[in-house]
Amino acid sequence: MEIIALKTFEKVAKEGGILAAAKQLNTVQSNVTTRIQRLEEELGTQLFSRKGRGLELTGPGRVLLEYAEQILQLERQAGVAVRLAGKGAAEIKIGAMETFTATHLPPLLGALRECCPKLKPQVMAATTAELVRAVLDHHVDCAFVAGPINHPDLMSMDVLNQELVLVQPKHVTPADNLVLFREGCVYRSKALLWARDYRDSRYGLSELGTLEGILGCVAQGLGVTLMPRNVVELSVYREQLTLEVLPDELAMVPTVLIRHRSTPRLKVIESLLTSLRWLPDQAATG
């Protein structure tokens, strides 16, 4: 099986069709069709079946996709390892929660660049649920997520503890509304538990995509939120907000670094782990 054939197969599987895959691969449809046909001939089985105007994986196709993702991840990481060994430019794909991206990732990347000057980090900011899936699908090399994470295919390492606080506007009475990240955010889940177990009011729900968007709307009285203390203290809206301590079962949320158990431990990942010492101790204050 050729790497280009596996890359094409993966794109068709993810996009659900030849045309969409061809656009992603920047090639013509006939090339995609030919590669899939040759792969099916080589394996002696049908990998896709028609579903309406698109394609879906057959049973053998689903099996191949699982292996293809691992093979392509290994192929990419082999290139990274070789380029680093030759002191050339190399990439690492790092996932991180929005809060970690805003507060802790910049100094960490700075320390990592000192260790590997020609490293080219790529960052994916998303919710914990999205990042766990990205690591499982080999779309990122590692990710900083809210823990604990218990999955047989993942390895995790404790990084720091975050203290969640109740964030309310200082100058206006807040609406009975929770201002939160989208589904998949651990802080969102904590906020819903808080509203259910510690408040009698029925709260509405507003979803926003950025930290400052959430904190800015809370400052104007749109509602309340739960957020790590250090994130709020660094916000431009800090003087317009009040912070309230939460019960321990809601307040303390560990941040962990996860990677896929089947992924070889690259030297660049070792450098990343070494760079974690640059992070401030958040165990007490979040």
UniProtKB/TrEMBL annotation:
InterPro entries referenced in this protein's UniProt entry, alphabetically: LysR_HTH_N, LysR_subst-bd, WH-like_DNA-bd_sf, WH_DNA-bd_sf
Gene3D superfamilies: Periplasmic binding protein-like II (3.40.190.10), Winged helix-like DNA-binding domain superfamily/Winged helix DNA-binding domain (1.10.10.10)
Pfam families for this protein: HTH_1 (PF00126), LysR_substrate (PF03466)
Coiled-coil regions listed in the entry: none
Residues in HTH lysR-type domain copies: 1-58
GO molecular function: DNA-binding transcription factor activity; transcription cis-regulatory region binding
Record key words, sorted: DNA-binding, Transcription, Transcription regulation
Family under the similarity heading: Belongs to the LysR transcriptional regulatory family.
Official protein name in the record: LysR family transcriptional regulator
Species of origin: Amphritea opalescens
Organism ancestry: Bacteria, Pseudomonadati, Pseudomonadota, Gammaproteobacteria, Oceanospirillales
